Fold each of these.
Amino acid sequence: MNSKFIIGLGNIGNEYTDTRHNAGFAILNALKNHYESQEQIHTVSVKKLKSQIFSIPSKKIYLVYPQTYMNLSGFAVRALIDWYKISNLKNLVIVHDDIALPLGQIRWVAKGGAGGQHGIESIIEHLGGNKEFNRLKFGIGPDPGGEKRSKYVLGKFRDDEKEILNKSLNKALKSLNLFLQGSSMSDLMNEFNVSACS
């Protein structure tokens, strides 16, 4: 069985905790909490990887939190691929926020452009323009547009959003577990790309 790498995108620092832009970290935290009650989790300490990494040896799973800030995520992903000699990008998933999707909706994609998500732009750049890698997009919209966008994505979820946020996190967690159990991308897309939580 090949190792699987789940890479959540976000910004480091307490001021970014629980912000919309750190949805990738939040989903990884939920996945890590899910496995902590069942499996031994090890910390991987390799400074040059520019990431906080937890491994679950019994499952051959790595949970990866790039520590480069969102817009430089490509440096960490490239370092990870080189260190672990990942030849098949289908064994990794990039988990990130997507302002074009409404809160409550997730979307699996196997390839495509960045759609204005700077972390994905950085990854594509450091993969030499390769856009064929799995992504789990987590909706944080609606997009307020213009000058309000930056403040919105770096803001925390409102109290009235928490119920649908938790439902969406559970949906993302369920879909990641299915990916890790061997579900195909087409099956994941058919099951989870359809409708938003309500």
Note: The beta strands are 4-8, 42-44, 51-56, 61-66, 92-102, 106-109, 134-141.
Amino acid sequence: MSEGPLDDLLRDGTQMILSLWHQDVVPFFHYMAATSCLEHRNKFAMLASQSYDGELTERVVGPWGFRFLRGSRGKKGARAALRGLRRALKDGERIIVVADGPEPPAQYFQPGPVFLARTTGVPLYVVRTWGRPQWILRRTRYRMVIPRPRSVLGVFSSGPIDVSGDFEGARARAEAALAQLCVRAEEKLYGNKPARGIRIADRTRHIETRVRLL
């Protein structure tokens, strides 16, 4: 299930900056791997930290057509990451930026994607990827979600985001657009039916999750 311009953009090979919440990373990669991302023209560049987590992410999803730029935390690391992404955009690549990363709070749209769109002229799009049913890891920092087997995956996108004028206003518009997609995804996949949950204890990693059931 897909709503919005993303499918056409992928098909046409349009250059873009694509932003999503940290929470959606797993279902989003699942969607990209199942669509045209494997085609050469649809490769994306994105950031990965210098940590083991970043290395693991690169190993897992790199073969799906993603080129990773390794960065680090802190002001110097952030500036270096932005320079790398700007170079990628100037070279004609398309990039993915996690909007609320690399540090909390969750679902606060950081200024990086807006800055890149304003300084390069490449349009900014936002995407929400949501599953029915799915596991929500509520004790993780970003409440990560993992689609259950045979779940329905909904991909909701919008843009280009207007990044002109006041910078904070542009950042707020991007955040509001992504928030609207979150509401749309919930309505489309779950309607007015309240979500019910059961706790599952992962005995090997001691992680409790709450499972969304239909």
Note: The chain has six helices and nine strands.
Amino acid sequence: MADTSMPLTAHLAELRVRLIWCGLALAVGFGVCYGFSRTIVASLQHPVVLIGPPMTVPLQIIAPAEAFMTSIKVGLIAGLFLVLPFMLYQLWQFVAPGLLEHERKYTVPFLVGSTALFYGGGIMFYGILPYLLNFLLSFAQGDIKAQLSVGYYVTFCIRLMIAFGLVFQLPMVVIFLTQLGLVSSRMMVQYMRHAVVLIVILAAIITPSTDPLSLLFMVLPMLVLYCCSILAAKGIERRQSARLSQ
């Protein structure tokens, strides 16, 4: 711990300062991203298709305030994504004085890696979005016309993007547990079949829709991340063995 302890009131005052900075950052992020809310919605309506013809998602509003509330929602979520590194830095500034030197050494890479993986999950979601939508909208045939509510569609995208971002935290969780000695690469290989079943159940819970393609797009990255986590755990175990042998 730190050499000098702080009273509870000092901790609360420090927490208040960090929360104020986070609130101000979120307000700035919202102000910036609200001006681009139409552009962001347009990018979701016309997602980038790497392979295949371009697509346009048919959107409409079904309530007078839906377009306005959607712009507010998009500006707030996009602003949160924009200032997330700064908010994590404020969290680090609050907890760092109470950490040991070796704990500080591991915390910064953990926060940086976690943020990068969260953004990576969001990018993965946007890459598979057009293929997922093509599959779902293909069932609108005959007299059934696909006309999605813009509010529902944006909420669907936000939930799925957050789900992918959380799923991509798996390597960081495994690295953290391996550092504590609670998980080993041998254990992960031994219980891989059980892990596959748990991954399918978890993917079914966090996927915002009930279609099988969404579940598949969630399960496959989780399996790849599980295998990457095994490799990461092996790397940490080798490093710990080399440190003990010195």
Note: The radius of gyration is 22 Å.
